[in-house]
## 1
Amino acid sequence: MGKAKKTRKFGEVKRMINPKDMRLKQNQQKAAEKKDAEKSAEVRHVERESSNMFFKYNTALGPPYHVIIDTNFINFALQNKLELVRAMMDCLYAKCIPVVTDCVLAELEKLGPKYRMALRVARDPRFERLPCSHKGTYADDCIVERVMQHRCYIVATCDRDLKRRIRKVPGVPIMFIVNHKLSIERLPDAYGAPKTSHSGGGSGGGGGK
């Protein structure tokens, strides 16, 4: 029988664990310390609550009501043959001042001649004009930022996404169109108004003022 050949093993070394391996206890401790340091250094932004919301209701809301109008709200009002100022007064039983921002007017101008009637309504001299200082003409972001800064407005919109965003801001009522008339959500009784019985419904209490 011939002798079996042995193959030489080149570069054979003892297997060692990497000093940076996370299975080592010291590395786990270092990672935990680093995580705690990052967490403590993190700047936490807590949004300031409006002083008007100190009580249960938003005390900054009261007649005359300032109603910020969205682009599609004007179009839906024309489709439902609603005269905005009169319809708002019928809804709230108080004087209402429709408010139009520069970006809403810019959106209507961009939509072209098809929406010229809506543009004419938005340029009504009874409407209050709010100047915008931001770039671009996206009205939704502008309206949300404005009501977060000043919670003295009602937002009139039929846009589902904008409604969802406004509902996250406490104390801001939403006006919308339903059954060919205006309706409002999240508007409590006026601060200091006499309490009315709930059996008669919300609209009956407002009409008696």
## 2
Amino acid sequence: MSGLFHAIDTLDLFPQYRLHTPAEVLKRNHVSRWEVLRDVVIQQVIQTGVGIALTVLDKEAMGGKEEWDVAWWAQWVRRAQWGIPGVLSLVGLDAKGMSSGNSIFSGALAGGVYPELTQIVLQHGQEVVAPAFADWEIQAAKAIYHLGVPAIQFAVAILIVDTWQYFLHRAMHMN
């Protein structure tokens, strides 16, 4: 990409779209192409070293835990429902009065109480009836786990790398 911009600059293509006039360009500090290439190679070596170090120091990837992670997020979805009656009462609405014949909707309005959602699990060798999640809670938890968490991780990674690039670029201009 930089080669394309170099060609546009040296061949004086699209002069009407230049941000700076030729007089302004001549006043600026200039470095040789060799110095630019040297700094780019140094930056690439540093980044490659950091990447290798992170790869070596990183824990081994674990698999088979996805169902547990989704269930953990489903618990948070259920906990978030605890606040629904309080929020509705703040705006003057009665959660119990809004409950309809739909048991899932009524359970959410009641603060995540679903007495009809149960499952049979083995506990110490005996079958026990335990509460279960609603399908929508599992789907919301899967969306959080597979879309929300990676989006936040990606945004944080971009913030870190962009900050790194800014300060390294600034250091190269100052030295």
## 3
Amino acid sequence: MDRATTIAFYKAKYLLMYNVTSWCAWAYVTYMVAMSGTKEYAGNYKLIGDYLLLVQSCAILEVFHAMFGLVRSPVATTAMQVSSRLIMVWLVCDAFPMVTSSWAYTGMVVAWGITEIVRYAYYSMNLIGVDNDYYWFVTFCRYHFFYVLYPLGAYSEYKLIQAALEVAKLNPDQAGYATMFRVFTWVWPPAFYIMYTHMQKQRSKFIMSGALDAKEARESGAVAEKKGN
């Protein structure tokens, strides 16, 4: 193999390993939360908080993947999504664990978990080279579930930030946190709009590419039939 082929080979192997590992990690987090049941909101953070902190922190690698051209994802939107989640796990939930006893923490984790399980499964199957006909359901989930999961995740995050803000306002020593959380309450809605419309554009591109492929297939079939006649 020449140098370019060798690099492409190891890049694909690395990305496959990263995506499969990430899928397993998020599947575990989501499973643990699902098994705890909706009556155990207060215990979910103790159950998976540290593990979620680790798993989500490792996602910073995705910014470097985009930055160095390992994937075609835009650097700006990737950095925005990863940084917003790091803010949630480190500056909100880890610094103010008392706010995680509400439904919002569980809602956030469930929204993140299902989103990532679908996303990493989709990426892994693409890297393996599986024909789309064999994982059409994953593709369907990838381009439809976000209509529900993104609003759920963003609203849950917003409620956690608001709760942390209320706690920080009561303590003069946490005035810096209070100011930061106020800024976040202003930033979160437009940031959600950017990410939501980005996914809508991705979905539109996917549907358009599928329509073009179908059109080319029909035209190829028509040409073949004409030649046969």
## 4
Amino acid sequence: MTYEVMSLDVQHLLTRLGITKCILLGHSMGGKTAMTLALQRPDLVECLISVDIGPTSTAPISEFSAYISAMKSVKIPDGLPRSAARQLADHQLCSVVQHPQLRQFLLTNLVEVEGHYVWRVNLDAISQHLVDIMNFPVFHKPYPGPALFLGGSDSPYIRSQDYPEIQRLFPKADVQYIAGAGHIVHQDKFGEFITAVLNFLPPP
């Protein structure tokens, strides 16, 4: 589960869909995957939007590892109604994942399969590749197209110390912040997020 492998997954999907050039938007891990694809295959990417993540290591500031451990420890009895299962999982997560909106975001991955509640994301694979996920691949050749780095003003994930690396790899980048938004920018300030994305995109 490296960003190079996830980038190849997206490339294969584009080929299967017959898409020769795309506008690529990704959030967090998806943003790092989108950046990797743009740097590997700039011919496929018309423009790039990275939501609340830069091309740098997030290990010093991320609580991701603790969140994964908390999700793996959730225990839901079989046969519970979905609403009760989500409430129980929310209660079990709240001591580690203290922001309610972030818990709700994580709980979108809790699904019922044949009467059992499971996480639809591969938590074991994520745990085994945390170092890769927290870091970012080394690239030397920049992406020449337009790029938007859209962060939340209340999030630590796009920091001023990241600007030199953003400018090195994405020389046409614009960095913007949405006031009052945390890491999940599109959930916290949906209207402002959509406006910022539409203002960045080329006219149809």
